[in-house]
Amino acid sequence: MFTGIVSDIGTITSSDKRGDLRLIISCDYDMANVALGASIACSGVCLTVVDKGTDKAGKGWFAVDVSGETVNRTAPGIWQEGKPLNLERALKLGDELGGHIVTGHVDGIGRVSGIAEDGDSRRVAFTVQADIAPFIAAKGSVTIDGVSLTVNEVKDDGPEAHFTINLIPHTWEVTTLGALTLGQSVNIEIDVLARYLGRLKERFTVI
To answer: For the chain, what are the domain ranges?
Structure first.
C-alpha cells in the first residue's frame, strides 16, 4: 500500500528487454534501508526490488522487472531509458497517511487535455475513457502517475469524461507532473473505494 505522496524522483538509467523488461532506476534513497523484495511505486506502478546497489559516485540504484502485462497497461513510453519516475516506498504501519490509500495498480490511461495557470497553481485537465470515467468524482481522490490528487470537477462527454485538478507550486516542482505537456499520457488509479463500489454494483446487477 502507498499514499500517493512522492518521496523522490528517480531516473531510468537502463532499460533491458529480457523475458520481462529489466529496469535500473537511479534514486536518492539510502539503499542500505531498502530490502530486496521491497515494493516501490514507480509513477503509480507497484514494482518489486530485485537488485540494488550504489554507484561509484555514491548514488543509489535499484532494479525491477516490468512484465509485458504492465507495459501494455501503463502510459506509452514511460519505461524508456532517461525517463524520470515518481517514487514512493511502501507505507509502514504507523506512518502518516498524507494522501489516500493507493494500491499501485493502474486502472487506465488518461490524456492531458489542458494546462492553465490558476493563481500560483496550475489547473490541469485530463480526459479518460469509458472504462474508468464512472469512477472519477468531483472532490474525490485520484492518483496520477503516482501522485495523490483531488478532483475539482468532472464533465461527461459521451463515453469519455474530462476532469480537472489543481497542482500547487510544491507538487509542480517536486514531482514529474511539473513537466506535463498537452496530449501526454499518464497512469490513472481510481480511488480504491470507487473500485469496490463499482464491483458491488456490477455483481448485484447480474443477480
So the answer is: 8-89, 108-206
Chain segment 51-77, per-residue pLDDT in tens: 999 998 889 999 999 999 999 999 999
Question: Class for domain 8-89, per CATH?
Answer: mainly beta
The yes/no answer on whether domain 108-206 falls in CATH 2.40.30.20 is yes
Over residues 77-129, the pLDDT tens digits come to 999 999 999 999 998 776 777 778 899 999 999 999 999 999 999 999 999 99
Q: What is the 3-class SS of the chain, one letter each residue?
A: CECCCCCEEEEEEEEEECCCEEEEEEECCCHHHCCCCCEEEECCEEEEEEEEEECCCCCEEEEEEECHHHHHHCCCCCCCCCCEEEEEECCCCCCCCCCCCECCCCCEEEEEEEEEEECCEEEEEEEECCCCHHHCCCCCEEEECCEEEEEEEEEEECCEEEEEEEECHHHHHHCHHHHCCCCCEEEEEECHHHHHHHHHHHHHHHC
Note the pTM of the prediction, 2 decimals: 0.91
